[in-house]
Every structure is written in C-alpha cells, then in structure tokens.
Amino acid sequence: MQEIVINLHIHTRFSDGHATHAELGRYAARSGLDAIIVTDHNLWVQGAEGYHTENGRQALVLVGEEVHDPTRQPQKNHMLIFGAERELSPFGADPQRLIQQGTAGGGLCFIAHPYDDAMPAFHEPDLSWVSWEVEGYTGIELWNGMSEMKSVAGNFLAAAFYAFFPHLMARGPLTRTLNKWDELLNSGKRVVAVGGSDSHALPMKAGPLRRTIFPYPFHFRCVNTHLLTPTPLSGNLEADKRLIYAALKAGHAFVGYDLPASTRGFHFSAQGKDSQAEMGDEIPAKGGVTFQIRLPLKTECVLLKDGKPVKKWNTRDLCTYITTEPGVYRVESYINYWGARRGWIFSNPIYVR
C-alpha cells in the first residue's frame, strides 16, 4: 500500500479564508503534502482543482464544500462534503436531506467539528453538531485544529499566547469527540475518522499587536489525514481524485499530528486464519486475529477495543496483539513534545466480526 498525506477543511477568500486556491496549492507543496481539500462555506468553487508545484514538489488541490444553514440561530450542523461535484448549500437546512443529496452521486459526507465551543471574548458561537439522529454519513472530523483552539483559549490572553506560540497548543482530539466516535462505532455504525485543520489564516489585531492565527503553512504541518492507497498519485486529476476519495470512503486512513515528528510510516493491520485487513476493513474472529502495529519511532502506543484500552506499550515501535474476541479495534499513540504528552496518531478501526 502507498501512503498519501492530505490536509482538509481549508477556507479561501471565497468565504472567510485569506488565500487563493493557487496559493494554497503552493503552500501545500512547500509543506510536503500530497494533496489538500478546500471546503469554503456554502460554496462549491468550480475550475479550481489541479496540481501546483513549489520547490520541486507537487501538490493536488481538490475542492469540496462546508455546508450549513446560515439562517439558523444559533449556528449548528456543519457538514464537509467531498466529491459530490455540485452545489449543495440549498439543502443545508435539513441535515438528513443534505446527506442524501451529498452521497447520491458518490460524494462523501463528514460531520465537521462535532464539538465546537463558543469563544465569547471573540464573539465566536458554539458551532457543534446537534442532529445526531441522521443516518448515512461517511464519518466525522475527529480532530479539528480550530475547535481545539476554541476549547483551550477562552480569553484574550490565552488566545494571544497561542497565537505567538501555536506549537504549544495541540494536545489531541477533544475527549467528547473521541467518546462520541466510540459510541457510534459501538452502535454498529461504520464511521470514518479524519483530521481537519479548519484553516482560515485569520488576522488578529489588538493595539500594537498584529498576528495571523495559524498561517496555512503552519496548519499544513500539523493535523493531517494519512491515506493508504493501492497505487501512488499519478498526476492525472480524475484518477487521483478517485484514488483519494476511495481511500477516505473505505476508512483506509489515520489521523496524524505531524508537527512533533512525522507520522509517515505508521501501519495498523490484522492477520486472520484465512484473511488480512487494513484500517477500515472487517476480518472474521474465527481462528484468531493477530494485530500488528508499526510506529515511525518508539513511543507510547495504546490498542483499544470498543473504546476501552486492552493493551498499552511504552517506548515501542513494533507491537503485536492476538485476540479471538469480536469488536472494534483502533490505535492511539502519544508523544512527548515541549514538555507535554500529546496525541500523535489516531487510527481508523479494524472491525473484528
């Protein structure tokens, strides 16, 4: 399998971001990404997809959409849609209909920032998802860079501190989001997890202070979604788009926080009596299943079953675990960075049935 690193949930000048698609493509190439997915608010921008080159590296820019109902007060229920290839904002008022329309032509629907706290000091509302009764969506945004900022920077001083020292902020997905994901998985749903930047490159001004909140190149080095694909990107737009969206749909992916150390090379697989599985796949429990975990460096690794830890390793880069018990198994890895234990890798599950 090939590994492709993408960054998603990015805004341009077409909504509330501060860059063009071409500028984002060059930033992405410079940051070492293979692709990005731009999702402006209630706007599907046509004609902006393509490859961009910077310093000898190439990155693919794909375009989706972040849809919500702008007339609803307070704002809730933001949905990331990839691959639908049409404008879907007219359906934003009804989340279930939005999902049906978004997936009808092969598109993918991901619940954006499931828990997104308010920041009263900056007049930022709570933008959490509330319509959990919906069915048929592809997955959820497990780790959102801006939502985490809102959860830890409740006042101006904290926000200013993280604006100047952004590398000290990230700790991992919100506990509420992890718990909700496990709840959904334990109910029998297949829910793919992705990581999103929610990049805007927002300018901050307070008296003499001027600062951009999380410039795009910084976000592109942080929370990324790593995909496993059968072939590398070819340079053909339509073929590469299908490759990326197929991996996202299947859950052949993990969320990696690449700022402390690159998460490229992580692998989580399962070997059964007569079959094998990658992240996102199912495998029968009969005859026993051996999980194999490979980390890019020696650090903390936790294997979870149905949301509960079943095995923990410290300072290990190769881990194995044998089971005969059905369940939903996934991996979390943590790393020490700037004096704190931080989330590093969050895998999609392997389903043992």
Written description of the protein model:
This protein has 353 residues and is of the alpha+beta class. It has two domains: 2-257, Metal-dependent hydrolases (TIM Barrel, Alpha-Beta Barrel); 267-331, no CATH class. The chain has helices at residues 21-30, 95-104, 145-152, 156-164, 175-186, 216-219, 237-250; strands at 2-10, 35-38, 50-54, 57-63, 65-67, 79-82, 108-111, 139-144, 192-196, 202-206, 209-213, 223-229, 253-257, 267-271, 276-278, 282-283, 289-305, 308-323, 327-337, 340-347, 350-352. The strands form three sheets. Strands 1, 2, 3, 4, 12, 13, 14, 15, 16, 17, 18, 19, 20 and 21 form a 14-stranded mixed beta sheet that branches. Strands 5-6-7-8-9 form a five-stranded mixed beta sheet. The protein is globular and about 65 Å long. The two termini are 24 Å apart. The mean pLDDT is 95.
Note the topology.
Blueprint: E1 2-10, H1 21-30, E2 35-38, E3 50-54, E4 57-63, E5 65-67, E6 79-82, H2 95-104, E7 108-111, E8 139-144, H3 145-152, H4 156-164, H5 175-186, E9 192-196, E10 202-206, E11 209-213, H6 216-219, E12 223-229, H7 237-250, E13 253-257, E14 267-271, E15 276-278, E16 282-283, E17 289-305, E18 308-323, E19 327-337, E20 340-347, E21 350-352
Parallel strand pairs: 1-2, 2-4, 7-8, 8-9, 16-21
Antiparallel strand pairs: 1-12, 3-4, 5-6, 6-7, 10-11, 12-13, 13-20, 14-15, 14-17, 17-18, 17-19, 19-20, 19-21
| Name of the CATH homologous superfamily of the largest domain | Metal-dependent hydrolases
Provide the low-confidence segments as ranges.
none
Which CATH class of the largest domain is shown?
Answer: Alpha Beta
Please, how many domains?
2
